[in-house]
Design a protein that fits this description.
- This protein is an alpha/beta fold.
- It has 2 domains: 2-26 and 273-422, LarA, C-terminal domain (2-enoyl-CoA Hydratase, Chain A, domain 1); 39-268, LarA, N-terminal domain (Rossmann fold), CATH 3.40.50.11440.
- The chain has helices at residues 39-48, 56-60, 79-93, 113-120, 122-127, 156-159, 192-198, 201-205, 218-229, 256-269, 292-303, 325-332, 337-346, 356-368, 379-384, 393-404; strands spanning 2-8, 11-17, 22-25, 65-71, 98-104, 129-132, 140-145, 151-155, 163-169, 172-173, 177-178, 232-240, 246-252, 270-271, 276-282, 306-315, 369-374, 388-390, 411-413, 421-422.
- The strands form 6 sheets. Strands 3-19-15-16-17-18 form a 6-stranded parallel beta sheet. A 6-stranded mixed beta sheet has the order 6-5-4-9-12-13, sandwiched between helices.
- Strand 17, helix 15 and strand 18 (388-390) form a beta-alpha-beta unit.
- Helix 1 (39-48) packs parallel to helix 3 (79-93), helix 11 (292-303) crosses helix 14 (356-368) and helix 13 crosses helix 14.
């Protein structure tokens, strides 16, 4: 027997499998990668050696109104390390500048006060000016037309800034190629209509809109355009291992520094597909597995290696429920997911509805395999989303074996589905 550990919320689940059934274990090198330096030192080094631009302190000179875009509560960005370092550099160059930390929620719910304290620490929350972006209610300014044809409207605070900078982290992203960099602007601080245009069904269906791909990716192209038009001048992005420890940091030009970070990540997390009847995946634990909506990301790693008609076992705590009313009802209100997909594909770029992209990718996964969902979410909710509920990996495996009906079934294990790029 072989024992495997899977991140689940802030804890872990274990599962023993017979070795003869194991087809492969898809684990990126980043999973247990340890850096020679601590997180603070890595960030400081990155700030001292920016890629493609002047140091942040020099960019801040003479600037009076500076906005720092920060990630929201759904991202494991170590803001307690990054933001203080960025603020020190900014104030080194412009001691009297007014600095606003703008939380890039995209279309997520607003970050709560408790979550802000957990993210930044009480000192920064008490002493800094923090604004939470709301894609529906925040004052917006149109900065032009996206390559996709949609209007690009972003938070007025960012547009009116003398200097716009951001923090973030880089990980594989299931349709933007990679997270980080330009995503701080779009979708981070964009209007809902702008995000919808960028996430249209045509772009989601494009074969280049996949994990680990930037070249010819139409979604990335839109995002990069928005980033440049909004004048995002400087980023600090990190890469994390499975323990959410900083193992790499890069700073500098929003495009060039991001590309360098993506190259580092790709060198560690690209793995070869090992086709199997049953594939077990996760969303990497907290905070990325708080809801079913986010868990679709980890399913796409399994999608890339499960045999057609096979079974995906997805373990995601989901104690925050489905994660989106639109997402839930798009899936739950229609029994025929093929009909739902056809409806999405008929819509034009400016007719995209909220969360349609997530449902579209989810349906693509469900067309390939049966999904057994191990979570704390209500069974009725899981069934409504066309999955089979389970409350342990052991129970899920028994269900999966009944579905594949093979004595010689094969299993591929993906301990962290959001940390690998499956080729």
């Amino acid at each position: 027997m072989m024992e495997f550990c899977f991140p689940y919320g802030k804890q872990q689940l274990t599962l023993q499998l017979e070795e003869q059934h194991i087809q492969g274990v898809l684990l990126s090198q980043i999973h247990h990668y340890k850096a020679a330096k601590g997180p603070a030192e890595l960030v400081e080094d990155a700030l001292k050696h920016p890629v493609g631009t002047l140091p942040l302190s020099q960019l801040a000179e003479g600037k009076k109104n500076i906005v720092v875009i920060a990630s929201d509560h759904t991202r494991p960005v170590p803001s307690k390390v990054i933001i203080p370092a960025m603020l020190r550099e900014i104030r080194k160059g412009s001691p009297d500048a007014h600095i606003t930390i703008l939380i890039a929620t995209g279309c997520h719910r607003g970050t709560t006060q408790k979550e802000l304290v957990e993210k930044f620490g009480p000192e920064i929350v008490a002493s800094e000016d923090i604004e939470v972006h709301d894609c529906d209610r925040s004052p917006m300014v149109s900065i032009g037309t996206l390559p996709s044809g949609g209007d690009c409207a972003v938070n007025r605070l960012a547009v009116e800034a003398d200097l716009l900078v951001s923090e973030g982290f880089i990980e594989p992203h299931f349709f933007a190629g990679f997270s980080g960099g330009r995503k701080s602007v779009l979708p981070g601080i964009a209007s809902r209509s702008t995000v919808l245009a960028n996430h249209c069904s045509e772009f989601i269906a494009d074969p280049c809109s996949r994990t680990g791909i930037l070249e010819n990716n139409p979604i990335h192209k839109d995002m990069l355009w928005a980033c440049k038009k909004a004048r995002l001048a400087f980023i600090v992005n990190v890469v994390l291992n499975a323990e959410k420890e900083v193992i790499y940091a890069v700073a500098g030009d929003a495009e060039q520094a991001h590309q360098e970070g993506c190259r580092f990540l790709l060198s560690l997390c690209q793995v070869q597909s090992r086709a199997a009847d049953i594939v077990i995946s996760t969303n990497g634990g907290y905070p990325l597995d708080q809801n079913i909506y986010q868990a679709v990301k980890g399913m796409t790693a399994a999608e890339a290696t499960v045999k057609p008609g096979g079974v995906i076992i997805m373990a995601a705590k989901s104690d925050d429920g489905h994660g989106g009313e639109h997402f839930y009802h798009q899936m739950a209100d229609e029994k025929d997911i093929g009909k739902t997909l056809s409806l999405f594909l008929e819509r034009g770029r400016n007719e995209t509805q909220a969360d349609q992209w997530q449902s579209q990718i989810f349906i693509r996964v469900l067309h390939r395999a049966t999904v057994i969902y191990v979570s704390d979410a209500p069974d009725e909710m899981v069934r409504g989303l066309h999955m089979i509920p389970a409350h342990s990996l052991e129970a899920a495996m028994e269900l999966a074996k009944d579905i594949v009906r093979k004595e010689d079934y094969t299993v591929t294990v993906i301990p962290d589905g959001v940390s690998v790029i499956v080729r």
